[in-house]
Amino acid sequence: MTSSAHAERATADVAATPAEAATRRWARTDATQQRILDAAIDVFSACGFTAATMADIVAASGASIGSIYHHFGGKKELFQAIFERIATDIERRMDSASPELTGPDRRRAFELNVRIYLQAMWANRRAAMVLASGDAPAGFDRIRRNTMLTNFRHLISVLELDNSPRDQLLTRILVATMAESALMVAMCDDAADAEPIIDATIEAIDRLTG
Asked: What SS3 class is residue 51?
């Protein structure tokens, strides 16, 4: 798989609109659920989704099979819950910065959107790489593709781009830029390594939209 394909997966799978957030089953998780999700990330990262078994997740989490099915369901639902947890974290971070995001300076608001999003991708880097691996439940890739442009248009809506050919092309370029940047950030082991990538992304977007 090319880096662009990986990047598209890593970003599209975790950008979500507020309307989608309202319908999540796992927007708030307790300690047991968090432990199960952490274990599922470990197992999917080590084995891949297809090869991983529920027995692996039971062993890694210390939870019973009944508890896992009660809280989530099977492997597919656990994979979906990982996606939802990342999206919830992004929204939480954006909500905490909402006064700046809704200010009159639209360019500043967009830059802050980008920074918050990419910092969240680094904080959730292991989970993001699981989602970007290409080894996913049946139907997940279709959902990802169908929601990608919608989710990113929400992120860049503060720029008020229109439907002209120029702005349609610019939207696609911005999506691709964010996708590659998110993958690069998720591959960083240290936050100090991620920040220059985030700064460079914002600089590049400024040039594109200036």
From this structure: coil
What is the rounded distance in angstroms from the CA atom of residue 174 to the CA atom of residue 160?
13
CA torsion sign for 167, 203, 119, 140 is: positive
Domain with residue 16: its CATH number is 1.10.357.10
Asked whether the whole model's pTM tops 0.85, one would answer no
Could you give the number of structural domains in the chain? 1
Alpha carbon 32 to its chain's center: 22
Burial track 144-154 (b if 16+ CB lie within 10 A, e otherwise): beebbeebbbb
Distance CA 203, CA 111 (A): 9
- pLDDT tens, residue order, the chain (210 aa): 555 455 545 554 454 443 344 334 444 558 899 999 999 999 999 999 999 999 999 999 999 999 999 999 999 999 989 988 988 888 888 888 776 666 677 778 888 888 999 999 999 999 999 988 889 998 887 766 665 566 677 777 777 788 899 888 988 898 888 889 999 999 999 999 999 999 999 999 888 887
Tell me the residue range of the domain where 199 lies: 3-209
Cβ-contact 171, 161 below 8 angstroms: yes
Residues in the chain: 210
